[in-house]
Here is the input.
Amino acid sequence: MVSESTTRQEPLILGIESTCDETGVALVRGCELLADRTATSMDEYARYGGIIPEIASRAHLESFLPTLQAALDEAGVTFDEVDAVAVAAGPGLVGSLTVGICAAKALATAIGKPLYGVNHVIGHLAVDKLADGPLPERFIGLVVSGGHSNLLLVNDIATDVRELGGTLDDAAGEAFDKVGRLLDLPYPGGPHVDRLSQQGDREAIRFPRGLAAGKDKERHKYDFSFSGLKTAVARYIEGTRERGEDIHPENICAGFSEAINDSLTAKAVRAALDHGCDTIVVGGGFSANSRLRALLAQRAEAAGLAVRMPPLRFCTDNGAQIAAMGTELVRAGVKPSEWDFSPDSGMPLTQTSMLPDAD
Ligand code: KG4
Ligand code: ZN
Here is the structure.
């Protein structure tokens, strides 16, 4: 799988990411990031208020080769030196994934290297090794993005990931984007709601916490629900307008952000304590959220837990997370994928890679 000449040195993995609007290509050896290049088509969606899959797929097609070339130049390596190619196989937009997977299959075949189809959401956790060093053997993963809000028990990031819970409705980033829309903020609303929330009073408006009381609290120990909260924000805005009172977007954002982050952090800490894990690793676009970072650090410290949060540049989708995932699969001796795998837009979080069929 990995050539003799590299056994003394860690294998060099080329990672390709095209799950949504970012075309990412990165080169990683062990915990070292040699290059990380990203092109994005996000600017094209501002006027639509959401990603248009058709546009995203075409943008990947246009960006892939220039991004690949830029990454190879930045790392100063040739294809001969690459030991394996890793590509995001899901979850994501089928058209976008297809472009990246086709490119990865063609590339890996042409250079004669093994190919791994990897789970990009697990990659959001794997990328942390590039900032904070080798991952702990066992940890709780909190994956928070536009499409996911999940708590995972990670026994081995390459081979043993279990899902403890997730959102029953909206993901955290999705809820932020929807509240951004209610407040007429530009798309995507998440970072704007975050910025405004920092200027507001967290105590001014108390919004409800989903699944936080009674039977729901026990039945959905590690699950989240944010759609009721989003409705509460919509009603609050409507009611304030009807009464002819002034809206204070910064207080709405601060109260809303507090409700989401209270749930995320309380349940992440509880999951770690319940499962005897001493570390929480956070990943995904929403892990850029300022209140999540502050509140989780505070609550984890109070509970005697360590938190690993990737730097902001690793939070949104990128090739580095796919390459980092590739290094972990090679390390664990996982078999490469077969050439005929397809994208899986709903790839389960317990599936770390596209394994070959059992013989
Ligand atoms: O992981 P990601 O890049 O793409 C998905 O796989 O979904 O996450 C994007 C999501 C969007 O919903 C965006 O609004 C949100 O992450 N986001 C934020 C912040 N930065 C990005 N949400 C809240 N606060 C932020 N600072
Ligand atoms: Zn993602």
The domain at 12-132+315-332 is CATH 3.30.420.40 (Nucleotidyltransferase; domain 5).
